[in-house]
Design goal:
There is one protein chain. By secondary structure, the chain is an all-alpha fold. It has a single domain, classed as Methane Monooxygenase Hydroxylase, Chain G, domain 1. It is built from three helices and no strands. Helix 2 runs antiparallel to helix 3. The longest helix is centred in the C-terminal third of the chain and has 37 residues. The N and C termini lie far apart (about 35 Å).
Length: about 120
């Protein structure tokens, strides 16, 4: 996948910061998507090892949410972006909260998969 620049700014550093923010956000989205897929797979196949990996990945997702949100605040404070840059930063700041919640739900599915397997009630 080729990376498209968000837009060129007078400050190359600002452009780099925006690209990094976008990259981290997309990375978090990919991780959360993987968590959901693996949690459902662990549930269906009664795979407690995979479910445990999902639960551990949730800690990383939580750290990513904090890091990305802090980066958004830092860019807002230092760069005072306008127009589309401002909208993008605000959107990312709100969306990472939702991604973190989705990661939490994947962790809950994984936890339940472990419980069902231990109780002998797994679908497999």
């Amino acid at each position: 996948m080729q990376k498209e620049p968000l837009g060129l700014h007078i400050s190359q550093q600002f452009t780099a910061e925006m690209d990094e923010l976008r990259s981290r956000f997309l990375g978090m989205g990919g991780l959360v998507e993987k968590q959901v897929n693996e949690a459902v797979t662990a549930l269906i196949e009664a795979d407690t090892a995979l479910a445990q990996l999902v639960r551990e990945a949730d800690k990383h997702t939580n750290r990513m949410e904090t890091t990305i949100d802090e980066e958004c605040v830092r860019i807002l404070a230092r760069r005072q972006p306008a127009a589309s840059d401002l909208r993008l930063i605000i959107s990312i700041s709100k969306a990472v909260i939702d991604l973190e919640r989705i990661g939490d739900e994947a962790s809950k599915i994984a936890k339940r998969a472990i419980q069902l397997t231990e109780e002998g009630e797994s679908p497999k």
